[in-house]
């Protein structure tokens, strides 16, 4: 893909699109008939009126893509960088930053955050929602702390599930294919006077990548089962209740990566798999006070449980109290001594900074010469549990015909529990106040402003504003200028980590103990500031009625300061706010219903990334995009063809073509759909990291879905 200067492309395209006389029917259209989006400001708005860039992945597009993972769907979003850490662990960033720690994007399910509080990640493979239950995905492409608080730094992904009222009947679906693909789905929906319910169950399996760079097998398969219950109940003409329950359990294989620190110790472990369990429940009360005023109160609870136990072997000196003291005094010196202890064992220890360090080092060498070099094995429990309770009140009010206000407050309590990462339990509580005002200043001008005040027990308070001006050529065509600020709070791990490994079940006592603490210990600084982002955007969104064509174009310039870029590791982890990054460029997306049978969809992003830390440039492709063609052939036949491409994700090109062919059959009162999907890589590159390799460049799978 090639790209010209963004400053030339946008005026040229706008001139071509808007230079022709507008049709009378296009100038005086009723705005309420336009498609509405909610994620941008919490107000229902037409795409031309949104203070930012939106991408909506509707149900037809989701189905036609043949995607099995939510992360795969996000390849259809311009500027979204989608990669893989392993076969069961996707990494998704908007515009980029670190390839392995994606922690700057808010992800919601029906408005409920699934962004984990302790390690600040989104487990894309473990989200407890089946693809078949998703109605659409709204993606706000840009900072949105104003609406969703800290951590909505670069984008917001809102996964909106199907209403129970639209889910009546029975559905069964099975999918089988290469690479161990084995998925299933079943749901039952019903209704009664004033209420509707959907119960769904699903499962998913695959083998992940085939091999590592050295040719060895790659342990990265996944297996999971999910259950979801969604209920809507009308209490009277003005009140209703929505409640949901979701649960997921499964296991994710992980390659054994532990390497003994000390010379002469062989690796004797082969299993570090993760057993993952997620639970979430929410209850929402909706009240329509009058046609101009409504509010809701929503409470939710979530729990993430990751169980991981593995076997480790190292020299007995690893558990030396003296080596532990030396690490606490001078980690660099302690690591130098440990790594080269064989060379130092016959001579004196290397010179230390102080006499105290030198004396301790001599004691460590004495222990090594005696029994310290013997191998000891035991079990390490690297499990973690995270819990979140959330309570939110939101009020939506039309103050006048041309003035709307959404405001509210939120309280959230987070707790993380891990003996490995936190040496116990760590908790945090956060209060938020937010407001967004929309003022229709004239027939053509729409002015919007908002702010959120947030106060966190661990990271302090912040105030983030946004202001936008939309010039509506008519209700279907709008130009926008947006300035916004956003923050990301350092997560519990970055700021307050207390990382150490306790080894239990030792095969022999060490220093008089059957369990012992490894000498390496990592402590977080505890005083990190919030990352801060300033974003400027110019854009256009338009819908051409006669052509059934929707177009969105965006120019952006984003600056992130006080970035925390250090990788999360248990080896001299020194986090700081000393990094920064800039992202500038252009994005465009086109969705064109050519006729009743054909739909064309194109996206493209040019991203120029600059960062003080090279790690924050790893997942930024300069050129990326997608192209899709959906076709209804008649007589129940349909097909779709998608291309996904990026010129460099962590240094590796990605190009793939996905083809799906489906046949729908009427079986009395039931419908059966048979479909086949083929994914074909066009390049010979690994996926994101050197070890992520397949034996074949293609994978095929088929599905059968029955509805009645």
Automatic annotation (TrEMBL):
| Keywords tagged on the record | Cell outer membrane, Membrane, Receptor, Signal, TonB box, Transmembrane, Transmembrane beta strand, Transport
Q: Where is the signal peptide?
A: 1-24
Residues in a coiled coil are: none
Using the record's annotation, list all stretches that form the TonB-dependent receptor-like beta-barrel domain.
243-652
What are the residue boundaries of the TonB-dependent receptor plug domain, all occurrences included? 49-155
According to its UniProt record, what is one Pfam family this protein matches? TonB_dep_Rec_b-barrel
Matching InterPro entries: Beta-barrel_TonB, Beta-barrel_TonB_sf, Plug_dom, Plug_dom_sf, TonB-dep_rcpt-like
Location in or out of the cell: Cell outer membrane
Q: Which SUPFAM superfamilies match?
A: Porins (SSF56935)
Q: Report which superkingdom the organism of origin falls in.
A: Bacteria
Instruction: Tell me how this protein sits in the membrane.
Output: Multi-pass membrane protein
Q: Which family does it belong to?
A: Belongs to the TonB-dependent receptor family.
Supply the name of the protein. TonB-dependent receptor
What species is this protein from? Pseudomonas sessilinigenes
